[in-house]
Amino acid sequence: MPEPFSRRLFLAAGVAAAEAAQAQDSPQRAPVVQQPYPQSNLPAATNPIRIVTDRDIDPNEVALLKAAAPNVEVFVCSNQDEYLDRVRDAEVIIGEPHEDILRRAPKLKWVQVSGAGMEWMDQALRNSPVVVTNCARTFAPGITETGMGLLLCLTRGISTYYMPQFYKHQLRPIGTPRSPDHIELAGKTMAIVGMGGIGSTMARRAHYGFDMRIIATDAKPLPRPEYVAELRTPAWFPEMIQQADVVVSAAPLTALTERMFNEAAFRSMKPEAFYIALSRGKLFDDMALVRALREKWIRGAGLDVFPIEPPPPDHPIYDLPNVVMTPHTSGWSPDRETRLIALYAENIRRYSVGEPLVNVVDKQRGY
């Protein structure tokens, strides 16, 4: 029998969110004027609650979803024909439905997206009355562990100097104890673009775990956490990255953020700075990054995402010694799946009684 759903498990996964909500007065912080977070505003559900998905959810996980509220029906569709048939009676969809699915689902009230990014959302869903929730923060633990791992590979010379030697059955030290071939993070400044789940978790870990100074931007009106020295609106971005030793892109992909890391941005960074890409690959111009790394505008880059995934075999990114990459797998782990199902279950419970849902997406902003 599957373990019963535990709200404690779900709430434990949101510790970073709770810490981020600790407001601290900051005389340096620029005012953030935005609309409030969207609310679900759905009445209590009628029974039965019919949930349809084409995602890979196993029977034990289905049992946890059914246990979240009375009279829940979950249909895991094994093929497209079954999915198209089932959505006709769906009140809830777990997945990423496009316009053709919306037309077939007249009873649909709520979409629980199975990922965090919303760039796939088409105009039909954006303009519909259907409430959309995503999985923001669910993947942040693994992603930020990978982010710090990529950074340490670069700062400690592991990927640049020592792994290439290791593959040749060689190992000799590079530089001297005094040379800047090995860099410590303590006291360095990390600039984070986007203080959502990834950005806020990265900030907390870099500050408390590595004694780094954190500065950041975000488009939403967030209180400044105690582990962030300065938090401002996106207008501060050009100035912020000039003073950073590490720049982390953790923003959602929207029309305003696409290719924001372009030639001008990379040229304005410190020559000794590192760029870490964790949220969406299309936030950066890959050829501008290649040039920045070749011509030493910046010192190195750690990438879990790329504009085209995977990069084609002839892409020049593969020839650069000051790059370390993973294939958009930073959010993977068994623990991540546990948090994912816990989030679905908590939202089903809330939906069943008319409580505000977790992670409601602002469909006009796109995140």
Helix content: 25-40%
- Termini separation comes to 36 Å
| Content-based structural category | alpha/beta
How many distinct beta strands?
Answer: 12
CATH C-level of the largest domain: Alpha Beta
Radius of gyration: 22 Å
Largest sheet: 7 strands, parallel
Q: What's the helix count? A: 13
Element string (H = helix, E = strand): HHEHEHEHEHEHHEHEEHEHEHEEH
**Overall tally of structural domains:** 2
Question: What's the pLDDT, averaged over the residues?
Answer: 89
CATH architecture label of the largest domain: 3-Layer(aba) Sandwich
Based on CA inertia axes, which overall geometry fits? elongated
Could you state the CATH homologous superfamily of the largest domain?
A: NAD(P)-binding Rossmann-like Domain
Q: If you had to describe this structure to a student in words, what would you say it looks like?
A:
The chain is α/β, with parallel strands linked by helices and 367 residues long. The chain has two domains: 126 residues, NAD(P)-binding Rossmann-like Domain (Rossmann fold, 3-Layer(aba) Sandwich); 186 residues, NAD(P)-binding Rossmann-like Domain (Rossmann fold, 3-Layer(aba) Sandwich). It has 13 helices and twelve strands. The protein has a seven-stranded parallel sheet with strand order 8-7-6-9-10-11-12. Strands 2-1-3-4-5 form a five-stranded parallel sheet, with helices on one face. Strand 1, helix 3 and strand 2 form a beta-alpha-beta unit. Helix 1 crosses helix 13. The radius of gyration is 22 Å and the shape is elongated.
A few lines on this structure:
By secondary structure, the chain is α/β, with parallel strands linked by helices. 32% of the residues lie in helices and 13% in strands. The chain is built from 13 helices and twelve strands.
